[in-house]
Each structure stands twice: as structure tokens, then as C-alpha cells.
């Protein structure tokens, strides 16, 4: 069990994330997610929203809702609200969001995407990775919560479907990439045994479960 805690600020869930490194397979999966996100990003200045305990390797600047997380990272970061980004128009070439939109009230999510479009330059890209409420995910996580294998559930607004994430992005961007990620081996990611990390290759070869959705959007060129 982790010591994750959370609070509500203006309707959004602000959470100190669990220590993913305690779960070796999950940690390796998250590293793989970071690689997939990096493959979709153009060169240039990159902003990450809600980076948690560590920023993406490609991020140059981060914005986070939990102030203590800002103090622990080695890159420029500040505490703030993703619904009102404290950056000028056309400030970045890429923007990353990893597994955080489900903590935001549904009515506020479009504003985050509009803000992302505002601070991105033309042809800039947004890359979002969000949990997807597939049947296997619901059953697996439900059982883990009942058995006390996972900490308190903060997903009070619910995860976003593949369609919901795509629709959000398409309101302000041209969708350039969409991918569903997940394996039946996600059940093993709860384990704290170092041996679980050896399952990563098999996890990679069994991507037929809806657990996450990766959506990449590109801001249209001016006048397009």
C-alpha cells in the first residue's frame, strides 16, 4: 500500500501519486509509455501538465497541481491550474498530458484542451495518455480495490472512453494518432516483486486489452 493522498481544488482532484517504482512491471510499462509519447513529439520546447512525481524526459517546463511535486523535480516547474495556463500564446512546440484528465470535472476538460491549443505554436502537437474504462480494466481494478491491493480510489469522475478523449482533442486539433494500449498482464502490475518486470516483453506482445488510450493532436497551421 502507498501513502497516496488527495484533495479537491476548485472541483479538480489534486493527488500525490503513488510510488510507481514499488510496482516494477508498472514502472516499466510507464517507461514504455514515455517512449511512445516521445515518438509523437516534434522538436522544440515542450510543456507537461500534471507531471506528478517526475516529468517526462522530453519536457522542458512542467505545471502541477500538487505544490510539493514542484519542489522535487530538477526541471523548471510551477504550481498552477491547467484550465488557465500561465503562459503566453504560441509558447511551446509540444504539450504532454499523462493520465490526469480523469481527475478533472468533465465540464472543465474542454477548457484545458483549448488552453493547450492557445499556448502551442501552429503545427505544435498535444499528446495525451488516458485510462480507458474497458471491461477488463473495470473488473481487474474493482477486484483489486475490494481485496485492498490498491489504495483509495480517486477516480470520482470516471475514466474517459477512447471516443471521449478523441472528441476532446478534435475540438481544437487535427487528430494525428490514436492508439489503444493494454494487456491482460496488467493484473501482474500490482505486484511489488522485481520478477514481475520480466513480463514486459510478453506484455508488449499481448496488446489486445483496452486499458489506456493515446491520442495525438496537431494544431492547424494559421489560416488553415
TrEMBL record:
Q: Which Gene3D superfamilies match?
A: Vaccinia Virus protein VP39
Reply yes or no: does the keyword DNA repair apply.
no
Specify the signal sequence span: none
Q: Which UniProt keywords apply?
A: Methyltransferase, Transferase
Does the record bear Phosphoprotein in its keywords?
A: no
Tell me one GO biological process term. Answer: methylation
The record places domain Methyltransferase type at 66-127
Q: Know the name of this protein?
A: Class I SAM-dependent methyltransferase
Q: What is the lineage of its organism?
A: Archaea, Methanobacteriati, Methanobacteriota, Stenosarchaea group, Halobacteria
Amino acid at each position: 500500500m502507498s501513502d497516496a493522498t488527495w484533495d479537491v481544488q476548485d472541483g479538480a482532484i489534486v493527488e500525490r501519486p503513488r510510488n510507481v517504482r514499488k510496482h516494477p512491471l508498472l514502472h516499466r510499462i510507464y517507461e514504455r509509455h514515455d517512449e511512445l509519447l516521445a515518438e509523437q513529439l516534434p522538436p522544440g520546447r515542450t510543456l507537461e501538465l500534471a507531471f506528478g512525481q517526475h516529468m517526462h524526459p522530453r519536457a522542458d517546463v512542467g505545471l502541477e497541481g500538487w505544490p510539493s511535486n514542484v519542489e522535487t523535480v530538477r526541471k523548471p516547474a510551477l504550481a498552477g491550474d491547467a484550465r488557465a495556463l500561465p503562459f503566453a500564446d504560441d509558447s511551446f512546440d509540444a504539450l504532454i498530458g499523462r493520465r490526469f484528465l480523469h481527475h478533472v470535472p468533465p465540464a472543465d476538460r474542454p477548457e484545458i484542451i483549448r488552453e493547450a491549443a492557445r499556448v502551442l505554436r501552429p503545427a505544435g502537437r498535444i499528446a495525451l495518455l488516458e485510462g480507458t474504462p474497458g471491461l477488463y480494466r473495470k473488473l481487474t481494478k474493482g477486484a483489486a480495490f475490494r481485496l485492498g491491493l490498491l489504495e483509495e480510489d480517486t477516480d470520482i469522475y470516471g475514466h474517459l472512453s477512447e471516443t471521449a478523449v478523441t472528441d476532446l482533442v478534435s475540438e481544437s486539433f487535427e487528430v494525428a494518432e490514436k492508439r489503444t494500449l493494454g494487456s491482460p498482464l496488467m493484473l501482474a502490475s500490482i505486484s511489488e516483486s522485481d520478477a514481475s518486470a520480466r513480463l514486459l516483453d510478453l506484455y508488449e506482445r499481448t496488446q489486445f486489452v483496452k486499458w489506456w488510450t493515446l491520442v495525438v493532436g496537431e494544431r492547424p497551421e494559421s489560416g488553415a
